[in-house]
Amino acid sequence: MLEVGTKAPDFELPDQNGNMHKLSDYKGKKVILYFYPKDNTSGCTKQACGFSERLPQFTEKGAVVLGVSKDSVASHKKFEEKQGLAFTILADPERKVIEAYDVWKEKKNYGKVSMGVVRTTYLIDENGIIIRANDKVKAADDPEKMLNVLDEA
């Protein structure tokens, strides 16, 4: 996980519609950049739907929500349509951004060890500096928690 106070690495990734997004495009806004393991899984769906439901509140507070996983653009499109998501999901199948943000880690699941995305949420300020970083994310609680964090930021 990257440290609070460090400059967030810039990146360029396609969204669920194939449009390219750079972190630097959002200069002047707060960015909630969250990394999740897989589209259409239970926890990831709860987290995404939570962010989508609260999007007007995030927008009101001057924040943009960007989700990132290693799923493809096509997978993200299906996820967006199936769940009615209202925010940008970025595809990182080569794991360039996932690795730049240090969220590709060894995970243990039922005694089995494998590599994967550790659910992590960053809050990046208007100047591209990481002001919050959390890798102990509870999927269902994360959107509400991040709204509260924005009030403190």
What do you see in this structure?
The protein has 153 residues and is α/β, with parallel strands linked by helices. It has helices at residues 42-53, 55-60, 73-83, 96-100, 142-152, and strands spanning 12-14, 20-22, 30-35, 63-69, 88-91, 104-109, 112-117, 120-124, 130-134. β4 (63-69), α3 and β5 (88-91) form a beta-alpha-beta unit. It is globular and about 40 Å long. The two termini are 20 Å apart. The mean pLDDT is 95.
Order of helices and strands: EEEHHEHEHEEEEH
Radius of gyration: 14 Å
Largest sheet: 5 strands, mixed
How many distinct helices?
A: 5
Overall shape: it is globular
The N- to C-terminal Cα distance equals 20 Å
Arrangement of strands in the largest sheet: 5-4-3-8-9
Q: How much helix, percentage-wise, in residues?
A: 25-40%
Question: Got a strand count?
Answer: 9
Low-confidence stretches: none
**Beta strand %:** 25-35%
Q: What is the mean pLDDT?
A: 95
User: What structural category do the secondary elements indicate?
Assistant: alpha/beta
Protein traits:
153 residues, alpha/beta, 5-stranded mixed beta sheet, two-stranded antiparallel ribbon, 9 strands
